[in-house]
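## Example record

The block below lists the input lines for one assembly entry, exactly as stored, with component labels intact.
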Amino acid sequence: MSLLEIKNAHLKLDDKNILNGVSLSVNKGEVHAIMGPNGSGKSTLSYMLAGRDGYELEEGEILLDGISLSEMEADERARSGLFLAFQYPVELPGVGGMSFLREAVNSRRKFLGEKELDHLAFVKEARKEASKMYVKDEMLKRAVNVGFSGGEKKRFEILQMAMLKPTVSILDETDSGLDVDALKIVSDGVNAQRNNDNAIVVITHYQRLLDYIVPDFVHILSDGLIIKSGGPELALEVEKNGYSGLINAA
Amino acid sequence: MQHSIKDDYINSIKNYTNQFEVTNFRRIACNDFKNWPSPREETWRLSRLGSLSRKKIKPINPNLKKNNNNTTNLIGSTIIQFIDGAYREDLSSKLPSGVNLSVLSDSESLKYLQKIKKSNLSDHPSTNVSLSCTPSIMKLTVSKDIKVKDFLEIIYEGGEDSQSVHPVLYLELEENSSLFLIERFNHLTSLAMPLQLIELRNKASLNSIKIFNDHEKTYNLSANCVYLSKESYLNSFSLIKGGIFTRSETHAYLNGCNSKLNLNGVYISSDNQHHDLTTAIYHDVPDCTSKQIVRGVLGGKSTGVFQGKVRVAQDAQRTDGQQMSRAILLSDTASANAKPELEIYADDVICAHGATVGELDDDQLFYLNSRGVPMDKAREILIKAFLEDMINQSVDNSLHDFVFKEAELALSSIIPKETL
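Predicted structure tokens for the full assembly:
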């Protein structure tokens, strides 16, 4: 059984068709990349999966580990094991990084029937994971994403992923705004999470990220439809010929 | 002439003040109280006293045997207790050295009146009614060069249904002195009209926290007149959460170069409460700084008002005046008004203001939801952060926790109702 199954997803925003029948199966242990030009529906797809208000499906279905997500709110989906790394992580003035992480982790643990971590155990765990992502203690004391650089924001996203241990992670343009060094740290962080029980969907414009997070499958999204699927070589084709060649051929 | 309840109130004040000579400060003040402010007056347009003027009220005759009701967690090491508007030495602590509390004589009281009358609080109802009816004007002085280490806490209690209470304070910080002052308004009365004159001499520094937490039926019309001399500093924070109608009006005069003022406030309003922070800051000399952050959280059918005027006189070059107000509405029936006003006559100034009224941010809520945090918890986190962020910026470190807990207590009554 697939870990994530998108079946014929249709979605409209302001009466405009954005997703026009996307289907995708992601199995345990796989990394899929979804590539596409601006306006192809990539971010809409990620919001739809995460359950943002206003991004409900017109038609179609999504299953996470066999369970339908359509009736679940965003928070329930997250607790069930779906994670979205934001393209633009949101600033939360006044909400400390450490307490934010703790709230998130304990929500997930409660759902899984695990005991909530006490303060000390949590801080220890958070520091351990944070150091792997080069996130300093001082950053955890600050308000979430407030005054963070582009690289810090993305590192903090992947730190959350590491702590929440999701079954399916959607990484929405995680490479945007990153220099080469930051890209490497973030990619290493993501790769460290890869295992045989989870799956990762990487959404990106550029092939560049896929040199670091090497996908098993690559899909091209255009006008709300997956027009072509293939292996990592498909990404190289995009890099060489641009999207237009593929779209015209389709 | 038609007899009205309002006339009853004025007459009872007159009857009381008539026993004094015509030149007495009480008589003068009483003559100036003609009526409750009408909604036609610009600064009372958003905070109307119509229902107050229809209430049958009399100025209280303080009961000097009444006991205090200190159920609140005291934080100060020195307590000054007012009950029914009267200072109660028997219930107050011994003051630290260099701090003195005294009753103003009639002639000093007259000077007090003249000072307030020079300000734009001259027609405020609390000025005239409280000066007419106060048991006595209490003067708290911190002597030159004295830095008071411990917190001083003033607690205002008492009052009765259908009565008005009139504590009047004169706070003078002499040159180079400093004080931490916490004031709590916990009246159980129909109307409280606290009046204060604060004078900060050269290099004096005052950290002031006011917590308005009167009974749910109380009207509180607090009036404060502040004069800042050269290089003096006032860091003022007000938390308005109690009463059916609480308006704190402060007029601050920056009269000495390099004086610095922070005039911050939070209001937390629920049910049918009306909360109003009205301020006016007058930059009269060069090189002064004023900063204002005001935040409101409103639920139920409550209403909130922030009116903030900043006037920069022609000579007040290099003034830095910042003002920012934000209100968050948690229900469709709550409303908030913000009225920033800048009057600038100098040309070399930095002045900025901004005001927003809105709901919680959708992006922020979604971000929290996407991390597994349920909607009601996400709202709670954001509301608390909205206030904590501001409290951390505007209250001295040592009092963050205390002030935030006071705010949290009020939030607990609006968050669950609005989110479940």
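Chain A is about 40% helix and 25% strand. Residues 4-90+165-249 of chain A form a domain with the Rossmann fold fold (CATH 3.40.50.300).
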